[in-house]
Every structure is written in C-alpha cells, then in structure tokens.
Amino acid sequence: MKKVDKSMLITSLVCLLPLVLSSAMYNRLPDRIAVHWDSAGNADNFASKGFAAFGLPLFLLALNIFVHFMLNNDPKKMRTSKAMRQISKWLIPVISVILMPITLFIAVGVDIPIPMITSAIVGIILILCGNYLPKSRQNYTVGIKLPWTLNSEENWNKTHRLAGYLWVLGGIIIIGTSFINAKLSSFSVVLIVVSILVVIPMAYSYRLYRKGV
User: Fold this and answer.
1) Integer angstrom CA distances of residue 55 from 35, 48, 71
2) Whole-prediction pTM value?
3) 73/71 Cα distance (integer angstroms)
4) Is 80 in contact with 142 (CB distance < 8 Å)?
5) Over the stretch 51-99, which tens digit does the pLDDT of each residue have?
6) CA 45 to CA 33: how far, in whole Å?
7) Count of CB atoms within 10 A of residue 95's CB?
8) Do 47 and 59 touch, CB atoms closer than 8 A?
9) Mind giving me the DSSP string for 174-204?
10) What is the pLDDT of residues 116-174, one digit of tens each?
C-alpha cells in the first residue's frame, strides 16, 4: 500500500482553512469582490463572491497538490536541499492563509495596505529562497532551470551561488521599500528588482556556457 504523503495532506488542509472564514463572512460580502490591485493599490479585477470566497481556496488547493506531485516525482528530488523542498511545499498554503483573509476583509471595507503587504511577502520569499538556493544541486523542479545549468553541474552551482546572494539582497531591498508611503514606488521597486534577479543569473549562466563551463 502506497504511503500517505503527510506533507501534502497537512498543507492541503491549511489551504482550506480560509473556507472557515469565507463561510462565516459570506453573508456580509458584496456580490463582487476585488481579487487584484494595481500598483497604486486600487482594485482593477473583480470576481463573484462565490468564486472569491470558495473558488480561490479550492484553486490554491489544486495548485498545492500539483506542486507536491511535481516535487515528489522529480527523479533528482534528493539533490534539492531539504529546506528548499519545504519552502516550495509550504509557499502556497502560507499565501492562502494570508491573502485570502486580506481579500475578504478588504471586501467588507477594512482598510488594508495591500501593496505594502504583498511587497513584503515577495521580499521574504526571495530572502528565504536566496539563502537555500545555492545548497540545491541539479534537479528538474527547484532552481534556475536553464539549458546551460541543466547541461553542466559546475554552471548550475556557480549560477545558483550568484543568484543566492542577489536574491537575499533583492529581498532586503524590497522589504525596505515596502514600508515607503508612496505605494507606487513600492510596486515599481518590486518589478525592477525581480526583473534584475531574473536577468542577471540567466546572463551569467549563458556567459559561463560560452566560456565552456
């Protein structure tokens, strides 16, 4: 008999916890609920309250199960650092229990600084991943999976070592700017920093490949 994946079971239950709050608040919710905000913190996309209250947690549940499936069936999963696997498995459940209540409370009129919170979450994720990213060896699910990193273990290691430092620094910058009063500035910094954190490791990996690494 196949062993039950306790991690997937626990994280799936966590993903569903917001359903309790959704049920308790359902009668107070408006017919349409904001589910996305622009760089100034203004709602620019809405969904029906049924989907926002119950559909989003179920969607996150499905996404959580998919992530576990991919991680558990990676032929090289044991080459990934244990910490990175745990971060990957718990990322969606944590987002679910943070962002779902925020979405519902905003819907009933509670003033919540969504740009600051989302920016801070991005920064924390980058710091955590940047700290453990260099400890992951070549695999197919976690890390900077480029043709050049997957082709050469040395390329993988050097690229992830650089990315680790950059991601920690980028996370610190984003968290710092998330507390700036200018909401637009906070989101703009996130966009710029994340773009840099994606482009530089890719360019560095390709440069190594061109040098024969």
Assistant:
1) 12, 10, 24
2) 0.84
3) 6
4) yes
5) 999 999 999 999 999 999 998 888 887 777 888 889 999 999 999 999 9
6) 8
7) 17
8) no
9) HHHHTTSS-HHHHHHHHHHHHHHHHHHHHHH
10) 888 889 999 999 999 999 988 888 888 999 999 999 999 999 999 999 999 999 999 98
Q: Check: CB of residue 137 under 8 Å from CB of residue 156.
A: yes
**Distance from C-alpha of 195 to C-alpha of 190, rounded to nearest angstrom:** 8
Q: HEC states along 96-150?
A: HHHHHHHHHHHHCCCCCCHHHHHHHHHHHHHHHHHHHHHHCCCCCCCCCCCHHHH
Half-sphere exposure for 167 (CA within 13 Å, toward CB) = 22
Q: Could you give the 3-state DSSP secondary structure of residue 37?
A: strand
Classify 83 as helix, strand or coil.
helix
Q: 8-24, pLDDT tens digit by residue?
A: 999 999 999 999 999 99
The sign of the torsion formed by the CA atoms of 11, 15, 21, 23 equals negative
